[in-house]
């Protein structure tokens, strides 16, 4: 299942195949790689663009896993924006309609759903 991904501050987004991942961990790492700045100042990609060195900017990598720089959010089937990771992976892949990488400071109103 492919879903669109956009990042705050970038005019071009991308698509990600959720079925290519089995857990949040691998998915988040792929999202980080997809949107890392490249050596030429362009948008990074996980598709192996020539001239891209994923380790060249290690000191300046943004992190989705720590939630300080950026936060990955998703729109669910009800149109609500939620934090990625608030439900089990298997449920997430059936609920997500699109993804947005938001600056951490702008996602302060989003909280994980309480356990039911």
From TrEMBL:
<dbReference type="GO" id="GO:0005634">
    <property type="term" value="C:nucleus"/>
</dbReference>
<keyword id="KW-0539">Nucleus</keyword>
<dbReference type="InterPro" id="IPR053793">
    <property type="entry name" value="PB1-like"/>
</dbReference>
<feature type="domain" description="PB1">
    <location>
        <begin position="1"/>
        <end position="106"/>
    </location>
</feature>
<dbReference type="GO" id="GO:0009734">
    <property type="term" value="P:auxin-activated signaling pathway"/>
</dbReference>
<comment type="subunit">
    <text>Homodimers and heterodimers.</text>
</comment>
<feature type="region of interest" description="Disordered">
    <location>
        <begin position="36"/>
        <end position="58"/>
    </location>
</feature>
<dbReference type="Pfam" id="PF02309">
    <property type="entry name" value="AUX_IAA"/>
</dbReference>
<dbReference type="InterPro" id="IPR003311">
    <property type="entry name" value="AUX_IAA"/>
</dbReference>
<keyword id="KW-0804">Transcription</keyword>
<keyword id="KW-0805">Transcription regulation</keyword>
<dbReference type="InterPro" id="IPR033389">
    <property type="entry name" value="AUX/IAA_dom"/>
</dbReference>
<keyword id="KW-0927">Auxin signaling pathway</keyword>
<comment type="similarity">
    <text>Belongs to the Aux/IAA family.</text>
</comment>
<keyword id="KW-0678">Repressor</keyword>
<comment type="function">
    <text>Aux/IAA proteins are short-lived transcriptional factors that function as repressors of early auxin response genes at low auxin concentrations.</text>
</comment>
<protein>
    <recommendedName>
        <fullName>Auxin-responsive protein</fullName>
    </recommendedName>
</protein>
<dbReference type="GO" id="GO:0006355">
    <property type="term" value="P:regulation of DNA-templated transcription"/>
</dbReference>
């Amino acid at each position: 299942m492919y879903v669109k991904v956009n990042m705050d501050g970038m005019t071009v987004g991308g698509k990600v195949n959720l079925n290519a991942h089995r857990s949040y961990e691998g998915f988040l790492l792929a999202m980080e790689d997809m949107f890392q700045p490249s050596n030429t100042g362009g948008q990074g990609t996980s598709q192996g663009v020539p001239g891209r060195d994923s380790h060249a900017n290690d000191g300046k990598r943004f992190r989705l896993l720590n939630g300080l720089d950026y936060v990955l959010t998703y729109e669910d089937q009800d149109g609500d924006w939620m934090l990625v990771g608030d439900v089990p992976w298997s449920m997430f892949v059936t609920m997500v309609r699109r993804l947005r990488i938001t600056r951490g400071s702008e996602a302060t109103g989003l909280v994980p759903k309480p356990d039911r």
